[in-house]
Write a structure and sequence with these properties.
The complex is a heterodimer of chains A (270) and B (783). Chain A is built from eleven helices and six strands. With 270 residues, chain A is mainly alpha-helical. In chain A, strands 1-3 form a two-stranded antiparallel ribbon. Chain A has a two-stranded antiparallel sheet with strand order 2-6. In chain B, strand 17 and strand 18 (522-545) form a beta hairpin. The radius of gyration of chain B is 34 Å and the shape is globular. Residues 1-15 and 623-627 of chain B have low confidence and may be disordered. Classes of the chains: A mainly alpha (270), B mainly beta (783). Chains A and B meet through helix 1, helix 2, helix 8, strand 2 and helix 11 of A and helix 1, strand 9, strand 10, strand 11 and strand 12 of B.
Chain lengths: 270, 783
């Protein structure tokens, strides 16, 4: 299998050691009597599912706009599978949270995706995988969270929380990446397509979270009809770029380095 | 029988209450903490506590309970039989039964009798001192990490530094001096990673939230270069490359009942340090003939950043006649200083480019929201934003010991936006919801600058010709109008199933004029841009049995951009403004199946297929010496395809054991029309990733836990003969195992071991590392 092939002996040895320790522990203790139970993600110790109706009482500002949310498509009335639909499918069972209402400290008895991404990962497992790639926003490290960029309850998922309203293009990225979102004298039109046309915001195998690591990233839009009489030559605009592409990629070869925009150069040299 | 007047909403009506149906008051001397508080906590506080009390009635303090709510006085001391509170809890008033049906169990006769006695005995409210008014938690930690190999790469990928680490993994001090006052101080303090947050909250009065956090983002000192290409490897970038990213904030809030919610705040966000760039420099140059351009050898570059933003914020939230009003003002003073260098050792031309930009941006948004009917919710908003910036730029290029300085002493930028937005949510009948929004935006941007500039790429090993600076005038003027529409329809009347369709459309027009005028070279652009974006999605979710849930959707995206070049005469050999149109089209299919055949096992299988085509139409190059080289016309410029297969498994076979595993496989490719240019090869490869985590309760005091993450990608390229093989091949492992043990009622300890391994053959092994870490944590909780 491909995965096993790429793991070398060091990795397999470490994995085998960890597995052995775990199995030995299991064998030694599986017969002993222990009353404690493990709390798996999204479970809350001592809490049960209470149903959506219980949430309506206090969170009307959220529940009244939630039908407009893209996440509303996951709310199937009377879905037989428990915990797979409704508020508690993301926030965990809410009975203890409800019981604490009015007494303070209730936030400790509910899963808040603003602090813990596990609620989001129950469905978005491909995003969890992306956050494990070498380059990623530090969500798993606890320095960022999902709702900084997404509104899970509002009408538009592509903005920070804000209710029944719509996003502006790139505004969730511009909150932090001010340098790239500045106005420039010369702007790269690619920003009209959105930051995600070149970047995978959750995680990537490439530096700067780029979707593609070579000049194909730019040529998706900048390739043009070439002169059939000059095979192997690569023109972009009216410049022969054949030699330039030998130096590296469009932005790494030392030319188009200020690719978000430039105040000195229409070709984005600085 | 008597008549009691009950005010309900804005109407006054008389409700007949049959007091004879009330149970008699209890004959005991009531103890508030023993007899009454449990009833209020269990049956009343959920809705009539300090947070959004129903009907404006609160039972969390005696004063507020006696004050009553929107319906008037509810508790009349000494007169329980006449107190509406008792009538409601005894279910004597229709539509005012408390707790409401479905919101809690009806009080027993004995409980009503106790409440009557409590009121008759004068509503005594002596709260016993809480035993949990002060709590302190502290988790000091100490650890050590060793790295064999590229420690800078380890820092970059794992967001931590090797060597000693320690401090407080978590600390919290909680003080509740009164039932609705809270003082909370928490955070962490580790090497290069700090957070402290202070919350002082008094429900029904206001709050102060303040704090500071900072973390460090590390960068590898090789900047992603490929050592395979450098027979004489260039030195890495000097120093410990990192950015410190932080924020300090203070918010003052006023939350008085019946008043608007007001928040006045200040925030300072900053980013400081040096980061590596993906831009590379040529290396090495030929000392015997610096004019020879080195085509293949590369070296990294770095950039110094000093960015700060002072933010003043004011929030206003109120509800007037059922209209929720939300106003947000933000004033931002921003300053950015950057300094690039390609270092003298990395080519024949050493460049030091400095840029400074500062701006003030004022923005205010106001949004109104109202529920007109049970089936109709509407909102409207308006945003105004104005940004005024100026800056300067200097680049000193040194060649053969002589400096050539290009400067732009001042440039100015302005951006002004007006955004209007109207949205609605309609639920005309059971099971159908329709939401829609329209947003129009007008933005005007202008930029202007005059100076003497090089025509020099940043890390280009330039011949002396490009070092000469020429007087330059820069100008840009963009006038953008766009309208965006958003809609969604959902229908859930099919048993256990929901159908959905949603769309996002945008029509955009931009009048654009850009120019870079100089004597030897010029750029003139005058474009009318129109864009039409369509993003549609439709699908369903169904869960017909307790064991199965399935969701699937199809998405179609198209962005059609048309550029009408009002082409002014271009100087010979310059940019022609060539793109006439660009059409980007995406198809996406996604399906997810969740199976839970038995209560302790759940699996999620998902599949996603994504394909994007980009088609361009360009003018023939004209006006330049090579104008016959590109005939123009329409072409499929690029194709990107990816598929993602994933499976997640969750096991809880025994109450003491939990295991969560996920595997994903993602083949993808991007190919472009490059006319067989040998330096460009398709970007294609596979990504595999595995995550697993588990916990086992070993005994009454001990837990074992562990996790493993693995990912590998193979986008390696083999075009060394023609260019730079800039693909990537790597594999990364991280194993963590640990033991947590309770040492006493308030003390627990944790021991963690971590193993990390990273191999990147495509960098010639320069980035490889193996790391191990050991951490111990003691958690103390007082009292």
């Amino acid at each position: 299998m491909r995965v096993l092939k790429v793991m070398n002996r060091h990795s397999l040895a470490a994995l085998a050691l960890a597995s052995s320790v775990g199995l030995c522990s299991l064998l030694l203790n599986s017969c002993s009597t222990v009353n404690r139970t493990v709390v798996a993600p999204l479970q809350i110790e001592g809490a049960n599912y209470a149903g959506n109706q219980a949430c309506l009482d206090c969170h009307a500002n959220i529940t009244r706009i939630f039908p407009a949310s893209p996440h509303a498509k996951l709310h199937v009335e009377n879905a037989p599978m428990a915990g797979q639909s409704g508020c508690e499918s993301c926030h965990g069972p809410g009975s203890k949270h409800i019981a604490m209402a009015g007494r303070g400290g209730l936030e400790k008895f509910i899963i808040n995706p603003g602090k813990n991404p596990e609620g989001c990962f129950q469905c978005h497992q491909e995003i969890r995988a992306a956050f494990q790639f070498p380059q990623h926003h530090p969500v798993m490290e606890g320095k960022m969270n999902c709702v900084q960029c997404h509104d899970p309850h509002g009408m538009d998922i592509l903005k920070p929380a804000g209710g029944l309203a719509m996003a502006r293009l790139n505004e969730n990225c511009a909150q932090c990446h001010r340098e790239q979102a500045l106005p420039f004298i010369f702007q790269h039109a690619a920003l009209r397509e959105g930051c995600t046309s070149c970047h995978n915001p959750h995680g990537s195998v490439n530096a700067k979270l780029l979707t593609t690591r070579d000049s194909n990233l730019c040529l998706r839009c900048h390739a043009q009809v070439q002169n059939p009489a000059a095979p192997g030559r690569l023109f972009i605009g009216n410049k022969d770029h054949t030699t330039f592409t030998r130096y590296g990629t469009c932005w790494t070869a030392g030319c188009h380095t200020a690719i978000h925009g430039s105040n000195t150069q229409p070709y984005f040299f600085y | 029988m008597c008549l009691v007047a009950v005010a309900f909403g804005n109407s006054l009506f008389a409700a007949a209450v049959d007091e004879s149906r009330l149970p008699p008051p209890a004959t005991v001397t009531v103890d508030f903490n023993r007899d009454i508080k449990p009833i209020l906590d269990e049956s009343c506080l959920r809705c009539h506590g300090p947070e959004k009390p129903k009907g404006g009635f609160r039972v969390d303090t005696r004063e507020l309970a006696l004050k009553g709510g929107d319906n008037g006085v509810a508790i009349i001391p000494g007169e329980s039989a006449q107190s509406p509170f008792i009538h409601y809890v005894a279910h004597l008033v229709e539509d005012m039964e408390m707790p409401p049906v479905g919101k809690g169990d009806q009080l027993t006769t004995a409980q009503v009798a106790l409440l009557r006695a409590w009121i008759d005995q004068g509503v005594v409210w002596e709260v016993s001192p809480s035993t949990n008014q002060v709590a302190f938690t502290m988790a000091p930690t100490l650890g050590w990490t060793t790295v064999k190999g590229d420690e800078h790469k380890f820092r970059e990928l794992n967001w931590q530094k090797e060597g000693f680490n320690g401090g407080a993994e978590f600390f919290e001090f909680y003080h509740q001096p009164a039932p609705h006052s809270k003082f909370l101080l928490n955070g962490h303090a580790l090497v290069d990673d700090y957070k402290i947050a202070l919350t002082m909250d008094k429900t029904g009065f206001g709050f102060v939230h303040t704090g500071w956090d900072q973390y460090r983002k590390y960068y590898d000192v090789y900047g992603g270069y490929n050592t395979i290409l450098t027979p004489a490897a260039p030195p890495p970038l000097p120093g410990d490359l990192h950015l410190d990213i932080g924020s300090a904030w203070i918010d003052f809030g006023l939350t008085l009942p019946k008043w608007p919610r007001l928040v006045l705040g200040y925030e300072y966000d900053y980013t400081r340090g040096n980061k590596s760039m993906t831009s590379w420099g040529a290396y090495p140059f030929n000392p015997n003939d610096p004019s020879i351009i080195p085509e293949r050898n590369i070296a990294p570059t770095s950039k110094n950043i000093d960015e700060g933003a002072h933010l003043i914020k004011f929030d206003f939230d109120a509800a007037i006649h059922g209209v929720a009003i939300e106003d947000r003002f933000r004033g931002q003073f921003y300053q950015l200083n950057t300094h690039y260098t390609n270092l003298a050792a990395r080519g024949p031309v050493a460049q030091n480019a400095s840029q400074k930009t500062s701006y003030f941006q004022g923005a205010n948004s106001i949004r109104l929201e109202k529920k007109f009917y049970n089936w109709l919710l509407g909102s409207a908003g308006y945003l105004y934003s104005q940004l005024n910036a100026d800056g300067n730029f200097t680049n000193t290029a040194t060649y053969a010991g002589a400096p050539y300085t290009g400067t732009l002493p001042q440039y100015t930028l302005e951006r002004e936006s007006h955004v209007f937005n109207v949205n609605s949510l309609v639920e005309p009948f059971g099971g159908l919801t329709f939401s829609a929004g329209v947003q129009s935006e007008w933005t005007r941007e202008t930029g202007f600058g005059n100076g003497d500039l090089h025509r020099l790429p940043f890390t280009y090993a330039a011949p002396p010709l490009y070092l000469v600076t020429t007087p330059t005038a820069l100008n840009s003027d963009h006038d953008e109008n766009s309208i965006s529409e958003l809609f969604a329809v959902r229908y859930n009347q099919i048993p256990f199933t929901l159908l959905f369709a949603e769309g996002r459309l945008q029509q955009q027009k931009i009048g654009q004029s850009d120019s870079d005028i100089q004597s030897t070279d010029a750029y003139l652009d005058n474009i009318d841009f129109t864009g039409n974006r369509t993003d549609l999605r439709a699908g369903f979710t169904t869960s017909p049995w307790r064991t199965v849930s399935f969701t699937a959707h199809y998405r179609w995206y198209d962005n059609d951009s048309q550029y009408r070049n009002n082409q002014p005469p271009q100087p010979p050999g310059t940019y022609p403004g060539f793109i006439r149109s660009l059409d980007i089209q995406t198809d996406e299919v996604e399906a997810k199946l969740v199976l839970r055949p038995i209560h302790w096992f759940k699996t999620t299988l998902s599949y996603q297929y994504l394909t994007t085509d980009s088609r361009t139409d360009v003018n023939p190059a004209s006006g330049g010496p090579v104008n016959t080289d590109s005939p123009g016309g329409s072409i499929l410029a690029g194709e990107s395809d990816s598929q993602t297969y994933s499976i997640a498994l969750t096991f809880t076979p025994r109450p003491r054991f939990f295991l969560d595993m996920a595997f994903a496989y993602q083949p993808s490719s991007t190919t472009t029309a490059v006319n067989g240019a040998p330096a460009i090869v398709p970007y294609q490869g596979d990504i595999y990733s595995v995550t697993a985590s588990g916990t086992y309760v070993l005994n009454a005091a001990t837990d074992l836990f562990g996790s493993y993450t693995f990912s590998t990608a193979d986008f390696a390229q083999n075009n060394y003969a023609a260019g730079q093989p800039v693909g990537i091949q790597y594999e990364q492992h991280a194993v963590q195992i640990g033991l947590a043990r309770r040492l006493g009622k308030n003390v627990s300890a944790q021991l963690r071991y971590g193993f990390y391994k990273y191999d990147e053959p495509s960098s010639g092994g320069a980035d490889n590392y193996i790391a191990q870490s050991v951490f111990g944590v003691i958690s103390l909780k007082l009292p």
